[in-house]
Amino acid sequence: MARSFHRKRSLEPNSELNVTALIDLGFALLIIFMISTPLIEKEQVMEVDLPVADPNQSNEAPPKSVDITIMLSGGYRVDGVQMGEPELEDRLAEYSTMPKAPVLSIRADADTPYQTYIRLLDLLKEYKLSKINLVTKPDE
Fold first, then answer.
1. pLDDT tens for residues 53-103?
2. pTM of the full structure
3. Does CATH place domain 65-134 in 3.40.50.2300?
4. 8-state DSSP, 56
């Protein structure tokens, strides 16, 4: 009697997963990252001869905030520089032409007349400067 070594075909699906391709992909990615990581680190410390810019151009960044203090004696102090109203208008015109207008922090003594505030706010509105911060101190 001859033996038959053939398996009987079953109608059940094969539920085994072939993960060989996934393991190969994982090892390939691991090798790629192991090779590329030292190259990235070298690139960060590589010496570069940078081009030279025109020294006449200013490297100053526009101010993000400007302090305007209303003086009791009349006049204003902008970032510590004392000036009158005409000089303040020139400075506000300069701020209004900037691509990003700075935040204007307004400080004044508690006894400053209200009309002085209104005059300054009218100047800011005239130059379309709308980023305003009225500085106060917390109630103690």
1. 666 665 566 668 888 888 888 888 888 888 888 998 999 998 888 888 888
2. 0.53
3. no
4. T
